[in-house]
Structure formats: structure tokens, C-alpha cells
Amino acid sequence: MVFPKKELYGDDIPSSHITPRSAFLNEKSTRRNFLSSAGVLAAGAAAGLTPGTAFADDKLQTIPGKYQATDEQTPFSKATTYNNFYEYGTDKSDPAHNAWRLKTRPWPIKISGLVKKPQTINIDDLAHYRPLESRVYRHRCVEAWSMVIPWAGYSLSKLLNVVEPTREAKYVAFETLLDPTRMPGQKSDVLQWPYVEGLRLDEAMHPLAIMATGLYGKALPPQDGAPIRLVVPWKYGFKGIKSIVKIKLVDSQPPTTWNQAASNEYGFYANVNPQVDHPRWSQATEQRIGDSGRRPTLMFNGYADQVAHLYEGMDLRANF
Question: Cα separation of 302 and 70, whole Å?
């Protein structure tokens, strides 16, 4: 689109040089669709992302949440290019390069099982849960690295209260989108697909557990779990299931992907416990991405004061 120079016409632009509204809207729509399909948005250059990287730049309106870690935040460029999301590949850089295939509209989320009001909610119908809270959480990966990320979301309990779990409900099961076309990693047999996870109901109802739709004040990039994911900051990162399409309330412990893949390495609870080593490495220390050196791993990732009571009487070495 070419605009006439103001110095030629001043404020009196001839009608012959004015682009028709219909043409403008069509070009605007075409450009937006092109950028979306290519995974290219203006914030990429500012964030230092590499060509081909997928990300989102929709600004979110948030209010400060109650829980705010005071640690220095991980740079945006690290949090959006160093990811575990096997649906897009097993290398840490694969999700950022391959997730542009994901289309997040429409995005229905089916909530069923032991609830009084089962329903299917479209991602855009979640607007009435706003304003979103901005919560800075420590994020600990079982591979002994960590980040500090400002998530935008709302307590999972708000969503569960809408469907009203019955007395028989004891656990919450989650399921990721199954679509090998948009998620090429699902064509491999590295894991069983679709990705599934679960929480005990009281864990899911804890105010620290959130459904996140953004980070750093922007909509979730595909590689970080767009359009909606689970964040449970006192647990290892593999519990934070991404791109959720199904939530089901059940009466018994549901299967979880990494526990199915290697039950001796990945337990159902996955609470951060530096006293229990992974069979192949120590969990006593961690590497904060973007920092040099290592630091001691904190029990429950530093959230013991908030969540330790959930596990009173449990052997946290057996229930890892």
C-alpha cells in the first residue's frame, strides 16, 4: 500500500488517492493471515528470535497476582526458544521452529466426567474469567534446569467450579491436542500420544495451580503451549501439560504420559524434591537458564509454605 506524500498535497488529499475501505481491510486481513501462517510477528526481531521461530504478540491486560517470585526473570528470548514440547520435536529448539503450524482458533475445550455441568468451552469464551492475573513463578524442569517466568492466567479452581465436581471426583485428567499434521512430533513413537497428565483434585483446586494463556504480558506462543496450558509451580515441568483440549474429572488416578514412558523415572506426583535423584542425574542443584553456575534446588521449588500441607503423612520419596 502506497500513501501520497503530505508535502505534495498538504491536508487536502484528492479522493483519487484515497484507498477504498474495502481494499484496505482486505489487504490488512491478507497481511495478518500471511504473518500468522509464517509465524512472523514484529516482536520477534525485538526479542532476538531466529527466522522461522513461532511466537505470539497479542498484548494481554493483566492485574498483579498474589504470588510473585522475586527472582530475576528469565529473558523472554530464552523462555520462548528453549522448550520441552515433544509434539514439535525432542530438541529444545525444535518447538520454536516447528510450532508455527498450530492454529489456535477455533479451540474447544471439553470438560466432562464426574461433574454436574459438563460442557465444551471455546477458548474465546473464557473471557469472563478476566482480568487475567500476572504471576511470576519459578519453573523447574526434571532435567535440572529452571526458569523464572511471568505467566498470565487464572486459578484452575475457577474453571472447575463452573462445572461443579461431584463428590466422587478425586482426580483431574488433562489431554493435549492430537493432530500430527499440526504437531509433527506426534508422528514419532518417542511417547504415547496424545499427551496426558493428571492432578489430585485438591492439588488442582489449590490457588497456585493456574490455567495460563499468556507470558510476559503477551498471548502464549505455540511453543509454550498455546492457547492454554497448565502451570503447577511446585511440580516438575512435565506436569505442565500444553495445548489442552480435554479435562475430565475421575475417581481414580489417571494415566500420565511420562509415567507410562518410564515409571521408575517419572512419578505421578512429580513434586520438586531435591532429596530424590533422577536415576540418571542429581536433583540437588539446578541450572537457571541465562545464569552461570548452579544453585541448590528448593523443596517444592520454593513453595513449601503454600503446598506442603497437601502431602502430610505421605512418603515423598515413594510418591515422587
Answer: 11
- State yes or no: pLDDT of 164 exceeds 70: yes
Burial readout 214-250 (b: 16 or more C-beta within 10 A, e: otherwise): bbbebbbbbbbbbbbbbbbbbbbbbbbbbbbbbbbbb
Predicted confidence at residue 304, as pLDDT, reads 98
- Cα–Cα separations (whole angstroms), residue 70 to 67, 182, 300: 10, 37, 16
Strand partners, 295: 286
Tens digit of each residue's pLDDT (9 = 90 or more) over 58-94:
889 899 998 999 999 999 999 999 999 999 999 999 9
Percent helix, percent strand, percent coil in the chain, to nearest 5: 30, 25, 45
Alpha-carbon distance of 82 to 93, in angstroms, equals 6
Neighbouring C-alpha atoms within 13 Å toward the C-beta of 83: 31
Q: Please choose, from the candidates 67, 70, 45, 65, the residue with its C-alpha nearest in 3D space to the C-alpha of residue 55.
A: 45
* Category of 253 on φ-ψ map: left (φ > 0), alpha (ψ -120 to 50) or beta: beta
The stretches of 182-224 forming alpha helices (DSSP H) are 201-204
- Give residue 34's pLDDT: 34
**pTM score of the predicted model:** 0.84
C-alpha cell at 166: 461431584
CATH superfamily, region 19-311: Oxidoreductase, molybdopterin-binding domain (3.90.420.10)
Domain boundaries, the chain: 19-311
Q: What is the pLDDT, as a whole number, of residue 52? A: 53
Query: Around 211, how many Cα atoms within 13 Å sit in the side-chain half-sphere?
Result: 23
